[in-house]
Amino acid sequence: GLRSIPSLSQFNRLKYLWLNNNKIQDLTFLIKNYCLTELYLNNNELTDISGALKHLCSLQILFLHNNELKELGKTVKELKGMISLHTLNLFQNPLACDPDYRLYVIYILPSVQLLDRKLVTQRERESAFHLYNPERSLLVQSIAFGKRVNTPLGAPLGSRRCIQPARRLIMPSVWKHSDNGRLLCSFCRVPFENPEDAILVRAMTRSLTEFSSVDWNKVATCQERRLQNKAEPLEKLTVQFR
């Protein structure tokens, strides 16, 4: 039945805190508890957490379900800096009634693995990415090892191969007469009939592709480099081709 909590700043190494099943409406008492990793605030009367939790960058588990949180954007923005947060409960809040609530939380908080007691799937991550970043999603779908892929992002790997037939370049058939009456082809001076053909020709003649690989098993760790007090040259294999 607690409605307010005195400041906990004297417990600056506090890691685990259970305050569930109370009537708390204000979280200013947590202003100095930077080491918190688990925080249980479910079943309270919280209406807004703006400015109260964003400093808790070490938080891994946060329970906020069954409160009165209404603004989805402000609530999720407050948690955005928690890169270690893997378990989050926000259900039974008014904000959870938003039709895209779950996908929005998954997109803004990519570190969360368990949301509202349900595992976040790869398909949900892809759907959230496609919904809230459509331009980059289309770009990712269209590039695959130098080949264009027209299948959806969630399609099986076996169906992502480029199966388009080789396209014949359409060269413009422009001819002219020389001074001695012979026909000369001047296609090199005239643009391609299809702009994509011009792009393809330029890519084949001028672009260079480079792939590099490193055997990380042979790379010394930071501790090994400090102990050996010397830096060995990195073995890198580079292949270039057009």
UniProtKB/TrEMBL annotation:
It comes from Tyrannus savana (Fork-tailed flycatcher). It comes from the Eukaryota. The gene is Lrrc72. Pfam families: LRR_9 (PF14580). InterPro entries: Leu-rich_rpt, LRC72, LRR_dom_sf. This is LRC72 protein.
